[in-house]
C-alpha cells in the first residue's frame, strides 16, 4: 500500500524538483497549507468514497478552499471579489466542489484552534447559503458597490493600491534601470539563455497580439513562486516598460498550465480543449462575473501558459484576522457561498454542465446536506492524520 509520501512524490515527480522542495517545506507549515498543496489526494480519495451523495454535473474550479477567493481587477477596470483559481477546473459532480470547500472550513478552523462546534456552525451556514442562492437560479457578484463589512473594507483597501506601488515593491529601486528584485524566496534568477528566450517570446507576442496593448516591451524577467499547490510549475514574471512613455511600467505573469489534478479520477466526459491553458482561461471567463484584465494564452517551448497582468489589487482574506470576530466571519463565508453558487449558475448549460432548471431543482431538496457535511468533517480528520504522517516522514 502506498504511503502518503509515495502518493505526494508520485504526483510531484514531473514538476521542477528544486522548486518542489520549496513546496514540500511550505506544506509543513500547518494542516491547512498541507491541504492546499495536495489537491490530488483529495480527488484520489473522493472517487473511492462509499455513499457519497450524487449531484448534477457542473463546471468546478476544482481546488475551491477558503484562500482561493480573492480580489482582482476586471477587464472593465473595476475591482471584484470572487473565486480566483481555475487551474484544476473541469466538468465534475457539483458535490465534489462543495466537499472541497467544506473540508477546508473544518481544516482551517482546526488549524486556527477554533472550536469544533464553530466549524460545524460555519459549514452549515455555508451550505445553507449556497443552496439558498442556487435555488434562486440567479447569479450574483461582489464588488465595492455591493460588498458589506470585511469584504467591502478589503476591496476599498485594494482599490487604493496602484500599479506604481506594486512596481516599487518588486523592483530594485537602487538601480538606475529598474530590475526585478531577486530575493530567492518569491523571485529567483533565470539562467541567461532561458531568460533571453523568454523575453524574446513575450516581446514577439506583444508585438503581434490584438488583445493587449503593444505599447510595452519586456525589460526583465524572473522565476516566480506563489501559492502552494502550483509550486513546481514553470512560472515567470516580466517587467514591461512603455516604448514611448519610459516612465510607464507593467508587471505580467506567464504561468504553466498542465492537466487538472481531477483528471485521473473524474469520469465525467470532457469537451475537447486545444490546450490546458485554454481550459483554464475559458473556465475563468465562464465562472467569474467579469473576467480579469489582460487574460490570454500562449505556448513557449511546447508548454501551455496563461498570460495575465500581475495586479496590485490581487489579495486574499486572512482568516486568522477574523478568528475572533464571529459577525465578520459569517459575512465572509456567506459571500463565499453566494459566489460559489453563482459561478455554477453562470456557467450552467454550457458544454455538458447541468442547466439552470436542474440546479434549482437539486437545491430544492436538501436531503444530501447531511451526508455531504459528514463526509467533509470526516475527511478533514483524514487530512489531519495525513499531515501528521507527512511531518513524521519529512523530518526523517
Describe the structure in your own words:
- With 396 residues, this protein is of the alpha+beta class.
- The chain is built from 13 helices and 10 strands.
- Strand 9 and strand 10 form a beta hairpin.
- It is globular.
- The model has no long low-confidence stretch (mean pLDDT 92).
Termini separation (Å)?
20 Å
- What is the string of helix and strand elements? HHHHEEEEHHHHEHEEEHEEHHH
Helix content estimate: 40-55%
- Tell me, briefly, the overall form: globular
- Beta strand count: 10
Rounded Rg: 21 Å
Low-confidence stretches: none
Could you give the order of strands across the largest sheet?
5-6-7-8-10-9
Strand share of the residues? 5-15%
Give the count of structural domains: 2
Mean pLDDT level = 92
Main sheet makeup: 6 strands, antiparallel
Q: Name the quaternary structure.
A: single chain
- The tally of helices reads 13
